[in-house]
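In response to reviewer comment 3 from the previous cycle, which asked for concrete evidence that the modeling workflow produces usable outputs, we include below a single protein chain processed end to end. The sequence was submitted unchanged, and the resulting structure tokens are shown without manual editing.
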Amino acid sequence: MALSRYVRVAVLVAAAVGAGCHQYLNRSLSRAVAANSVTEVKRLLAEGADPNYQSGDGQSLLAVAVQKREYAIAEELVDRGANIKIKIDGFDPLALISAVPQCRPSLVRAFIKAGADPSSPGEVDPALYGALLFGANQCASELIELGAQIDSPHIAGLTMLHAAAWGASPELVLMLINRGLDVNARAKKGFTPLMGAAGRHDNDDEVDNVIQVLLDHGADPCAKTDTGFTATAAASRANKEERATRLAAACKSWKVARPKP
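The workflow returned the following structure tokens.
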């Protein structure tokens, strides 16, 4: 009886010590995430820290990493089994990590490998829309290759091609056109991808390349919105007079090549 009682006590002590060690690992992991220490996060996860441990304010460590844009740490957590079925301020995490220029394609792959939907609707827009709109070109390509729907419209009727044109990626614009998206797609009130590209204030060379791709594939430079707004007007509004002159000339040539019956 004495021996049996001793064994039970020893087991309880060992369990308590183990629980204390595990709690120590988890708290250390939380501090490492807060400090953006990728090396320490890797070490602690390898030693058994819980990737689903919650920080002091009740957030998962994955949510903390995504909010702080610590994408290398987020990838380590996902690879170790962090729950991706969470909302971060109401947003889908895949949509959040995709809608930033510094998006990591490997993190997108990790999320999808863990079960995320590549066509994730996010709060308003699909993850792909955000990647295209904010110039996360590698992640946009990754999402497309992994099965993201390219024909999912924005709530305002904007298409993925509108987003790619605004994001100033000629390669992605061409990819989407080649996959069947309408180069003259009209959003609500008649806004076209060409108008979006024409209205950009920066990235002159890339924007010019996007405009050329659109024009080469049949974009109508004379198209008007319901209020009469045109691509030429969009360029003028952005103080891009050289671009506006080019678009006005393209419209003139378009009218000659396509006279009204």
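Residues 75 and 107 are 5 Å apart (CA to CA). We consider this sufficient to address the reviewer's concern, and the full set will be provided in the supplementary archive.
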